[in-house]
Amino acid sequence: MSEVSVVPDLPYITFRLQDAHYGLHSLHVREVLPVSSVVALPGAPPHVRGLINLRGRTLTLVDTRVLYGMRSLPDELRALAAMMGQREQDHRNWLAELEACVQEGREFRLQLDPHQCAFGKWYDAFRTDNSGLAILLMRFDLPHRHIHAVGQQVIDLMHAGDREAARNLIERTRKGALSAMIDLFQEFQRSALELSRELAIVLEYESQTFAIVADAIESAESLGGTLKPAPNLWGSGAEAPIEFIAERAKDKSLILIPSMRFLAQAVKNTAS
Predict the structure, then answer these.
(1) In 32-140, which ranges are continuous DSSP H helix?
(2) Which of 8, 238, 267, 272 has the lowest tally of Cβ within 10 angstroms?
C-alpha cells in the first residue's frame, strides 16, 4: 500500500519550487524551519546541499530543485543579480552613447521605447510573489521611463541646433534619473539575495530523518480525494520522483506529490 493512503484524512503540506506546486503528506512532515547554516559535504552529489544541525541532530539537506532537474535558488538569484548588473551598465552606456551622438553630430540608434530595451522587456515580463522585491521593482518605473523620454528630447534639441541644451539635459539626467536607476539596480541585487529565504522541510520516512529545500510553504490542505497516479515518464525499474498528481478544489491547480521513497533514496545514495 502506498504511504500516502495510510492516514487519508490528514492534510498535505503544500510548497512551491519555481512556478510549480508540490505536496507532502503531513504524516511525514516533522517541522519547517529557515535554511541558515549549511555545512557542505565534499564529494556529495549536486542535489545534496550539505548538512544542517537540528537541535544537536545532524540532518542531510536535499536541494529539491536540483534533484528535480532545476537550477538551485541560490544559483538563480546569483544569475538574477548578475543580469541586473548588466542592465545597469546598459543604461550607463545608453546615456554615454546619447552624449557621444550630440558631441559628434550623428544619429542616435539605440532604443527610445522603455518597453523595448533589454531591461524593459524583462521588467514587463518578470513576476514575483516576494512583496519586498515587488515594491522595489515598482520604483524603477518612473526613472526608467524618464531616461528613455530624454532620448527623444535630446534628438529634438539636436534637430533644432541647440547642442548646448542637449548636453545640459543629458548631464541633469545623469545626476538625476540615471543615478536613481543605478541605486535601484544595486539595491535590487542586494535585496534579491537577502529577501528570498529558503525553507527546510524536515521529513521522516521509515527509519530516515532528513530535510528538503522549498522556495516557500503555501498551506496545509486536504488533497486525498483528488489523488491520481502520475504518468509513468521515467521507465520501468526506476523510482518515479513524482508519485501522484492532485487537484486543488479552490482553483483546480495541479499539485505534484513527490515519492517519499525517491526522496529517501536520494539521501541513502549519498551515504552509500
Answers:
(1) 64-67, 73-104, 118-125, 131-138
(2) 272
- Cα dihedral 261→263→267→269 (10° resolution): 60
- Using the structure block, give the residue that is written with the C-alpha cell 518605473: 141
**What structural domains does the chain harbor?**
3-70+198-271 (2.40.50.180), 75-195 (1.20.120.30)
* DSSP conformation letters of 5-25: GSSTTSPEEEEEETTEEEEEE
pLDDT tens-digit series, residues 55-110: 999 999 999 999 999 999 989 888 999 999 999 999 999 999 999 999 999 999 99
Rounded to an integer, what distance in angstroms lies between the CA atom of residue 53 and that of residue 45?
20
Single-letter code of the amino acid located at 51: L
- Cell matching residue 125: 515580463
Cell of 67: 534533484
Q: What residue has cell string 554615454?
A: 96
The pTM assigned to this predicted structure is 0.78
